[in-house]
Amino acid sequence: MAGRFRPVGLVAASTALLLTTACGGASLGTGEDKQSGPVKIGLLVPRSGTYKALGDDMKQGFELYVAQRGGKLGGRDVEIVVADEGETADSGKAAAEKLVKQDRVLAVSGVVSSATINGVKDLFETGKVPLVGSNASPTTLTGTTYIWRTSYVNDEPGKALGKHVAERAGGPVFLIAAGYQAGKDEVEGFKSTFLPAGGTMAGEEVYTPFPGTKNFQPYLAQIEKSGAKAVFCFYAGGAAVDFVKQYRDFGLAGKIPLYAPGFLTEGGVLKGQGDAANGILTALNYSADLDNAANKQFAPAYKAAYGSAPTTYAMASWDAAQVLDKAIKAAGSTVTSETVNAAIAQVGDIDSPRGTWRFNSGGTPVQPWYLREVKQGANTVSSELGRLGG
Fold first, then answer.
1. Three-class SS string for 101-150?
2. Helix or strand holding residue 220 (H, E)
3. Calpha distance 200→225 (Å, rounded)
4. Do you find a cis peptide bond into 211, omega within 30 degrees of 0?
5. Rounded Cα distance, 256 and 361, in Å
6. pLDDT, position 69
7. CA-CA distance, 348 to 360, in Å (whole number)?
8. 179, 185, 186, 187: CA torsion to nearest 10
9. Which of 34, 106, 264, 318 is close enough to 61 for a disulfide, judged by CB 3.0 to 4.6 Å?
């Protein structure tokens, strides 16, 4: 279905961008080489299922950037083709194949699931179509030429926290996470900086069955009996709400500090956690209250358009649009998927709401990381933890 997009309150969107799910012959896709004319960009995000809320944030962040530039990227009108990633690797792969083979887009952005991005690697590499992903980035995704990520590698939030927790815990730390690849990546990332900094663990790390664990009481009792002075956990989505509320109800909040990668309290889950989240400390590459020029442009505009503070998912998608904007402009009169991909490799520093960053040789950001604390229902920046990704 085709329609016109104009974020509420956004004057710059007077030249709206076209959203469509059909193939439009007038747009510049993979096989064409034109001096001018619109470009067609695929947006592969969940429009249904468990991860729809993340998909909404990503779609809104990308669209906001384009709307702020009068519906253009690289000086060209943009046609955005939205495809539903769904919640499985199979649904994500089918949607990606439609974008590349049927819609013949110039480039693709989005992708929430690590399973999806692993499943479509060959599609983008053999098709020579750039994917500027804005969320999924598993540690197993390596050796790519056409896949870039404006988010971070899965183990980096844990890496960012390790040394800080080792220096401040004052004793052993209990490690607990959801038992799937992202949880294991986060725990291993945390240990890689925590243990060398002198940190000690309160027994072996615990992985709770995913997605079936709803009752965390047995694990919380284990934490209480362990003698831990702090806890590092990884949970997201509904599990994050359940864990945080039960942590408070069990009497551990305020007694044993809780540290986690940022998505424990990011976006809609924070509202679901309510007062139970207050005092939780997280590491993330973004916070809506960051004091820099790019964020002063981005965060108020996002809130005005969509009625809520931007998340890291929205910010990374805004940056993905910025990367494509720069690359399409740099490609000049010869705009093809291959020339745009070559230009992405040369974009250099990105002036981002998170702070300035640039791609490393693996196609992920060298970027700042922040320690955040939940205060009165909002994530607030406490300090910078340093830069990772180099």
1. HHCCCCEEEECCCHHHHHHCHHHHHHHCCCEEECCCCCCCCCCCCCEEEC
2. helix 217-226
3. 16
4. yes
5. 39
6. 96
7. 10
8. 70
9. 318
pLDDT recorded at residue 24 = 36
Q: Interhelix angle for 293-306 vs 52-68, to 10°?
A: 110
244 Cβ neighbours under 8 A, 6+ residues apart: 235, 258, 264, 265, 273, 276, 277, 280
The token pair at 290 is: 């960051």
**pTM of this structure:** 0.88
310/188 Cα distance (integer angstroms):
28
C-alpha span between 269 and 272 (Å, rounded): 5
Residues 42, 44, 46, 51, CA torsion sign: negative
Residues 6 or more apart whose CB falls under 8 angstroms from that of 128 comprise: 30, 146, 337, 338, 341
- Tokens at 7, concatenated: 């974020």
Residues 171, 229 contacting (CB under 8 angstroms): yes
Q: Give the three-class secondary structure for 373.
A: strand
39 φ/ψ angles, rounded to the nearest 5 degrees: -115, 150
- Centre a 10 Å sphere on the Cβ of residue 273 and count the other Cβ atoms it contains: 23
- Residue 373 half-sphere exposure toward CB, CA atoms < 13 A: 7
Rounded to an integer, what distance in angstroms lies between the CA atom of residue 173 and that of residue 203?
Answer: 9
Q: Tokens 């844990």 correspond to what residue?
A: 158
Q: Are 40 and 98 in contact (CB under 8 A)?
A: no
Q: Do 267 and 54 form a contact (C-beta atoms < 8 A)?
A: yes
- Cα 47 from Cα 139, distance rounded (Å): 25
Pairwise CA distance, residues 236 & 234, whole Å: 7
Say if residues 162 and 191 touch (Cβ distance below 8 Å): yes
* pLDDT (0 to 100) of residue 29: 56
Residues of the chain with pLDDT under 50: 1-27, 30-34
pLDDT computed for residue 162 by the predictor: 98
| Phi, psi dihedrals of residue 223, rounded to the nearest 5° | -60, -45
